[in-house]
Design goal:
The protein is an alpha/beta fold. It has a domain of 76 residues. 32% of the residues lie in helices and 23% in strands. The chain has 13 helices and twelve strands. The strands form two sheets. It has an eight-stranded mixed sheet, sandwiched between helices. Strands 2-1-4-5 form a four-stranded antiparallel sheet. A hairpin with a 2-residue loop joins β9 and β10.
């Protein structure tokens, strides 16, 4: 079966005052229809840049997609003319941003933004578009939806604004939803409500790419996981495989840092050291300086992803002869 979304050797670079940096370095990922993938990693690992690249929303300048292909239902989005790509945004692929206040226009009322989104993709009257918008405001649990349609974004709470973004993302019934840390700016109670809402409202055959640094959210929401570090994907697996038997030392360190009721520890484990600077990437494994399992080859040769029983991991520990 052909994947719904296939990211192939994606490389994204940015011009900075200190020179050219590679934010995403040759990553590949396949998503089947109906799957929920989690893209997890520390801040600066390239997660959001990957998400923006799918819809070609990388600001240029200073950024540019330097290499690779992004196939959606067999079409390469990176080579699609903009007049053909624009209708796909929202209708086939929706994006939920981390902070809805920056995604919603502060100059227009909530209702107008929902109605114009619908009418851009559907040949329906303004009245019918308003009824659809009102229906979705009710579906996502916004109280007094009639009044909220006339509200300005700043008049809603963070949780209400995120519900508006979810309604905007789902009301056109897209094939793929990209959620870029949709609960980071919300308190824990509202986070749980938003995650439950996303899980219950999307159709079973709709795929979800969930970007987060929260392994608890990944465990709750995802069927598959890709772990990013310093612009690369270092491990992919099903969620059950990853949490039951993490392979990459970085993945193990991330899981070890999660608080647990079953561990009697006064302090949580931490990952010593720092993520390498994008201006000075090491020659070997990018995690080597922080890895307790490193050996000589780790610091001199860059590991390529290995296929291990349906999983992939980029670590010399799993090479056939790692010490040669």
């Amino acid at each position: 079966m052909n994947p719904l979304l296939s990211i192939q050797n994606l490389t994204v670079r940015f011009e900075t005052d200190e020179g050219l940096i590679t934010a995403v370095d040759g990553i590949s990922l396949d998503m089947q229809q109906g799957q929920t993938w989690g893209l997890v990693g520390e801040s600066g690992s390239g997660k959001s840049v990957t998400a923006l690249s799918i819809l070609r929303l990388i600001p240029s300048p200073p950024g540019r997609i330097a290499d690779g292909a992004i196939l959606f239902q067999g079409q390469d989005l990176l080579r699609l003319p903009m007049e053909q790509l624009r209708p796909l945004r929202g209708e086939q692929i929706s994006l939920i941003f981390q902070e809805p206040m920056t995604a919603l226009s502060p100059l227009h009322r909530i209702g107008r933004q929902l109605i114009e989104t619908i009418r851009f993709h559907r040949a329906i009257s303004r009245r019918n578009a308003r009824e659809t918008a009102l229906d979705w405001m009710q579906k996502v649990g916004i109280p007094d939806p009639e009044a909220r349609l006339e509200a300005w974004p700043h008049e809603l709470s963070g949780g209400m604004r995120q519900r508006v973004m979810i309604a905007m993302a789902l009301m056109l019934e897209p094939r793929l939803i990209i959620a870029d840390e949709p609960t980071t700016a919300l308190d824990v109670t509202i986070q749980a409500q938003i995650l439950d809402l996303m899980r219950s409202m999307r159709k079973p055959d709709t795929s979800l790419l969930l970007i987060t640094h929260d392994m608890g959210v990944i465990r709750e929401m995802c069927t598959h996981v890709a772990v990013m570090y310093a612009g690369e994907i270092v491990e992919t697996a099903t969620a059950d495989e990853l949490f039951n038997n993490p392979l990459h030392p970085y993945t193990r360190a991330l899981l070890a840092s999660i608080p647990s009721l079953h561990r009697d520890e006064k302090r949580l484990p931490v990952i010593e050291g720092q993520v390498p600077s994008p201006h000075q990437m090491p020659e070997g494994c990018r995690f080597a300086a922080r890895c307790p399992l490193r050996f000589d080859r780790c610091t001199t040769r860059h590991p390529e992803p290995l296929d291990l029983y349906g999983r992939r991991v980029a670590c010399w520990k799993y090479a056939s002869d790692p010490l040669s």
